[in-house]
Design a protein that fits this description.
The complex is a heterodimer of chains A (322) and B (201). With 322 residues, chain A is of the alpha/beta class. Chain A folds into 3 domains: 11-48; 53-230, P-loop containing nucleotide triphosphate hydrolases (Rossmann fold), CATH 3.40.50; 235-317, Helicase, Ruva Protein, domain 3 (Orthogonal Bundle), CATH 1.10.8.60. Helices cover 56% and strands 9% of the residues of chain A. The longest helix of chain A is centred in the N-terminal third of the chain and has 22 residues, at 67-88. Chain A is globular and about 70 Å long. Chain A starts with 10 loop residues before the first helix and ends in a 5-residue tail after the last helix. In chain A, 36% of the residues are buried. Chain B has 6 helices and 8 strands. In chain B, a hairpin with a 2-residue loop joins strand 4 and strand 5 (77-85). Classes of the chains: A alpha/beta (322), B alpha/beta (201). The complex binds guanosine-5'-triphosphate and magnesium ion (MG). Residues 9-15, 55-57, 60-62, 87-88, 155-156, 158-159, 182-184 of chain B line the site of guanosine-5'-triphosphate. Magnesium ion is lined by residues 13-14, 61-62, 85 of chain B.
Chain lengths: 322, 201
């Protein structure tokens, strides 16, 4: 899974990765330390009460771009809270299902938003745990009849109480009628009925493929009423993302680097590069620049200041897209 | 209350539990073991028998998660501990899926059990043997840092070179309790018992 630069978000996921051979035991323990510490810190911060919806939404609002998505999520929160108040007042409430479809290219924030939604729904008492289990076709589909149902049920069990995030979900319909992907979908739909209050399913993938997937499976349409579109980032957004990424790594962008990046990204916006418009492209550019900066600096014979060590100039970026 | 022993292979996790049971005055252990397909098998073993059956002399022996119920009276107080003995974890990603599954199950106990006894073989520090402390032990110590129920048992203190090993471990693991122990001479068992009582009550 070299192309999926994700980090495990829950103990369940870490253990699953150990089983898959994606993590060595020592790495797994360090992740566990981090993840369980994070949840404890959260608990401590609010003094044994839970994380608030406001805190989660603030985190969402701090993400770059995604204005439409932020709006929808705020609306969802309002709706859930009003429904709770209505229930409290003895009024009729809507039996709302919250399963979602996220369409967008990789690197446009789908996974991050899905995690936040899990936490939000936990804060709003819609989900008991709010953790997220991230899977793809290979985690659900087996090799022989019955195997798929078993695998899918296992995955669902891990996700109960939280979010099941299925990446590139359209690939479940890839092989047509005879494919075991169909069995996975059926098992999933059954589980969604059985665990109404305990499971939120998010299907994710490229926009065109997801549209095709839903059209060929009309039964799914009504079960996934909430659709979020993750648009490619604009050039300005991407420079914004670049600024944050370098800050996290203790670097800064020189003026000419920012300007150069903006030009590079606007000239090419959305057109020719396979990663155009997503955060992965920014990350690749930065990694390239960090290496180039190192080469540039060792080549100099004068003492280096802290500022030198931190600054990425445009010359470090040039030619960094391939 | 659950107590889990965890650590690299052959460090003495199983012997520690058996001898601790003896030290607490038990004459037998009640073991619950998975019987292959789903169910549980319950066995009563005398401690001598347990020592013989459950431990390894050269090859790693603990191949499944074993549960031993330790019930004893301390003073007027009855304590009941469910001790989980886990298979030793090798460094690196295991090539066999079953082995990886066992590692995952073991780590699950690490998360769940309120009492974690992390056993290291201090006499093997610096050696190439599977029981030599390594990155996994360091990671476990880091995991345990903030947990009240975590303790490092520096085992095999009766062996040559263990003092240097103990010192090295004390330098490397920060802010965790480290208890020198020998399952042979029973050094450290008193402290271990104290710790357990403190945890249970
Ligand atoms: N000298 C000495 N040997 C010990 C001590 N503790 C355990 N041993 C020996 O170390 C070997 C391994 O002991 P076990 O208890 O089977 O080790 P384990 O950690 O359970 O091993 P796995 O189940 O394979 O992970 C045995 O030969 C024990 O006799 C000790 O304190 N001193
Ligand atoms: Mg053992």
């Amino acid at each position: 899974m070299a192309t999926r630069d994700v980090t495990p978000g829950s103990p369940e996921e870490i253990l699953h990765w150990v089983e898959q051979g994606r993590l060595a035991p020592d790495e797994a323990v360090l992740w566990l330390a981090q993840v369980t510490k994070a949840t404890e810190a959260k608990r401590d911060r609010t003094d044994s009460t839970e994380e608030t919806a406001d805190a989660v939404l603030a985190e969402l609002d701090r993400m770059v771009g995604l204005s439409e998505i932020k709006r929808v999520v705020h609306d969802i929160r309002a709706f859930v809270e009003v429904q709770a108040l209505r229930r409290g007042a003895g009024l009729q409430v809507n039996q709302q299902t919250w399963h979602m479809v996220f369409s967008g290219a990789p690197g446009t924030g789908k996974t991050t938003v899905a995690r936040l939604i899990g936490r939000l729904f936990k804060a709003l008492n819609v989900l008991p745990k709010g953790h997220m289990v991230e899977v793809e076709r290979a985690d659900l589909v087996g090799e022989y009849i019955g195997h798929t149902a078993q695998k899918t049920r296992d995955v669902i069990k891990r996700a109960l109480g939280g979010v099941l995030f299925i990446d590139e979900a359209y690939s479940l319909a890839r092989g047509g009628e005879k494919d075991f992907g169909k069995e996975a979908i059926d098992t999933l739909v059954a589980a969604m009925e059985n665990y109404r209050e305990e499971l939120l399913v998010i299907l994710a993938g490229y926009p065109d493929e997801m549209a095709w997937f839903l059209n060929t499976n009309p039964g799914l349409m009504s079960r996934f009423p909430i659709r979020l579109e993750f648009k490619d980032y604009s050039a300005v957004d991407m420079v914004h993302i670049a600024r944050r990424m370098v800050r996290e790594r203790d670097y800064i962008l020189s003026q000419d680097a920012e300007q150069g990046l903006l030009t590079l990204l606007s000239d090419n916006e959305g057109y020719w590069h396979k990663n155009a418009g997503n955060a992965r492209m920014v990350r690749n550019l930065l990694e390239h620049a960090i290496r180039r900066q190192a080469v540039r600096l060792v080549g100099r014979n004068i003492p280096l200041s802290r500022h030198d060590l931190m600054t990425l100039t445009w010359s470090d970026f040039e030619g960094g897209l391939d | 209350m659950h107590l889990v022993t965890i650590g690299k292979p052959n460090v003495g996790k199983t012997l520690l539990l058996i001898n601790l049971a003896a030290y607490l005055g038990l004459s037998e252990v009640r073991l619950e073991m998975p019987d292959g397909e789903g169910g549980q098998q319950v066995k009563r073993l005398s401690l001598d028998r347990a020592r013989r059956d459950l431990m390894s002399w050269s090859a790693p022996r603990t191949r499944a998660i074993q549960t031993a119920i330790i019930e004893t009276l301390v003073g007027r107080q009855r304590i009941r501990l469910v001790a989980i003995d886990t298979p030793g974890i090798h460094e690196g990603i295991a090539s066999h899926p079953d082995q990886r599954h066992l590692v995952a199950l073991t780590l699950e106990w690490l998360i769940r059990a309120p009492m974690i006894v992390h056993v290291v073989d201090v006499s093997a520090v610096g050696s190439q043997r599977p029981e030599a402390p390594g990155p996994l032990d360091l990671a476990l110590a880091q995991y345990g840092q903030r947990l009240p129920g975590y303790i490092v048992v520096a085992n095999k203190m009766d062996k040559l070179g263990s003092l240097e090993g103990l010192r090295a471990i004390r330098d490397a693991y920060h802010e965790v309790p480290i208890l020198p122990v020998s399952c042979i001479t029973r050094r450290g068992f008193r402290d271990l018992k104290q710790w357990m009582l403190h945890m249970v009550t």
